[in-house]
Amino acid sequence: MTTTTSHVATGQWTNWGRCASADPVAIAHPRSTAEVADVVRSAAANGQHVKAVGAGHSFTSIAATDGVMIRMDHITGIQHVDRETGHVTVGAGMRLRDLNPALHALGLALPNMGDVDPQSMSGATSTGTHGTGARLTGIAGAIVGLEIVTGDGTVLTVTPDDADLFGAARVGLGALGIVTSLTFACVPSFLLHAREEPMLLPDVIEQLDSLVDDNDHFEFYWFPHTDRALVKRNNRVSDGTERKPLSKARFLLDDEVLSNGLFEVVNRIAKHQRGWVPRLNAISGRALSAREYTDWSYEVFISPRRVRFREMEYAIPRAALPTVMRGIDAWINASDETVSFPIEVRFAAPDDIWLSTGHDRENAYVAVHQFHQMDYRRYFEGIEAIFGEHEGRPHWGKLHTLDADALRTRYARFDDFRAVCDRLDPHRTFRNAYLDRVLGE
Ligand SMILES: Cc1cc2nc3c(=O)[nH]c(=O)nc-3n(C[C@H](O)[C@H](O)[C@H](O)COP(=O)(O)OP(=O)(O)OC[C@H]3O[C@@H](n4cnc5c(N)ncnc54)[C@H](O)[C@@H]3O)c2cc1C
């Protein structure tokens, strides 16, 4: 292909979970919005597809392309700060791990985030990445404006004044164009007090409403085959509270040795000795003991994830959670599947973004994982059927089997989103097989 971008190459691409790969005809590394527009125009003229890729942290093939892959690594950094409003504009390829300390240096923070930080801001928001907190939305809920290059190379600035574009583009799945910058409504930096402790699952379910509503950020991990859970409550502290981070030794023991090093060993054993998993889970459920610390929000939200896995996560109406948890327990007991990864449960507030899992609905999020060397299909399909009984909406970046016909029934604005696609990308330049499946051709 011909292009004016600074650097074009070819090469194989795989995602973090090693469950999606692509062989793009070219990889472009544009340095500006104008260069992105050049790549799009040139590829469209050659009849090629174009996809931007972030950190490749989606488990689905949502970022894969047989055409031109755009790497956003040169379109990063903080571009503008409005001190009065806390609105911060960043290059779309900026990674969360770079944004957090940069915001902190300005006395600012994102209101909420997920549990890892390698993702790009455009990748994280395009798929509806979220954390936990019943009064808080996913990361895209903090977007107050964005810039996007559409199918004919036009550069659009999207603001809340254009309700349709704003409704569609904040969680755009990469289907509407290449996002080049994002503006977030940030909040003043804040400390969180973290309290983590084991609890019995029946007690968690019984006290669910107060645990979710009385904490800023509540989540729990249930160890399948047992009645044990690890419960995490993170709360903002009052002014003047001292920062008391985890000691290096405790971090190393809990987060590196138990949650990663030993957990990798547990999974390698589980691969060959499936019958041992219930015992191993019971031991894991006890090994992580209670701990408390106070640290900057982004230090508390993040946990190192060194054991490679595959994941499926669905949003379900919050009220359905106890029934869904009972259904998952019953399915695991009735099957001969053994599950070594804890099941993660989080919560989020409704938002007004058309294809956000949180659209107009208060959700619980249930995530199931499988070690990357083990087959996940039967387990995920069994649990996916349970989510399907409760109007489950799959995370766009995590494994699922739904297609456009099923998804249309779960999103009131599904066809409105498709209409925006028709407008911004009439020739389907930004499509791939995954997007054709979930949006319809
Ligand atoms: C270990 C791990 C932990 C995770 N934890 C969480 C979590 O806590 N919460 C959660 O909700 N999710 C979580 N995820 C999922 C992850 O946040 C999402 O899949 C996210 O999309 C990954 O961001 P990325 O930069 O890797 O994007 P990619 O996977 O590279 O791309 C995702 C999509 O965004 C599009 N895209 C990227 N950049 C642009 C752009 N500039 N313009 C247009 N489209 C673009 C791509 O084309 C693709 O469609 C986790 C994933 C992993 C592997």
UniProtKB/TrEMBL annotation:
<dbReference type="GO" id="GO:0080049">
    <property type="term" value="F:L-gulono-1,4-lactone dehydrogenase activity"/>
</dbReference>
<keyword id="KW-0560">Oxidoreductase</keyword>
<dbReference type="InterPro" id="IPR010031">
    <property type="entry name" value="FAD_lactone_oxidase-like"/>
</dbReference>
<feature type="domain" description="FAD-binding PCMH-type">
    <location>
        <begin position="20"/>
        <end position="189"/>
    </location>
</feature>
<dbReference type="GO" id="GO:0003885">
    <property type="term" value="F:D-arabinono-1,4-lactone oxidase activity"/>
</dbReference>
<protein>
    <submittedName>
        <fullName>FAD-binding protein</fullName>
    </submittedName>
</protein>
<dbReference type="GO" id="GO:0071949">
    <property type="term" value="F:FAD binding"/>
</dbReference>
<dbReference type="InterPro" id="IPR006094">
    <property type="entry name" value="Oxid_FAD_bind_N"/>
</dbReference>
<dbReference type="InterPro" id="IPR016166">
    <property type="entry name" value="FAD-bd_PCMH"/>
</dbReference>
<dbReference type="Pfam" id="PF04030">
    <property type="entry name" value="ALO"/>
</dbReference>
<dbReference type="GO" id="GO:0016020">
    <property type="term" value="C:membrane"/>
</dbReference>
<dbReference type="InterPro" id="IPR016169">
    <property type="entry name" value="FAD-bd_PCMH_sub2"/>
</dbReference>
<dbReference type="InterPro" id="IPR007173">
    <property type="entry name" value="ALO_C"/>
</dbReference>
<dbReference type="Pfam" id="PF01565">
    <property type="entry name" value="FAD_binding_4"/>
</dbReference>
<dbReference type="InterPro" id="IPR036318">
    <property type="entry name" value="FAD-bd_PCMH-like_sf"/>
</dbReference>
<dbReference type="InterPro" id="IPR016167">
    <property type="entry name" value="FAD-bd_PCMH_sub1"/>
</dbReference>
<dbReference type="InterPro" id="IPR016171">
    <property type="entry name" value="Vanillyl_alc_oxidase_C-sub2"/>
</dbReference>
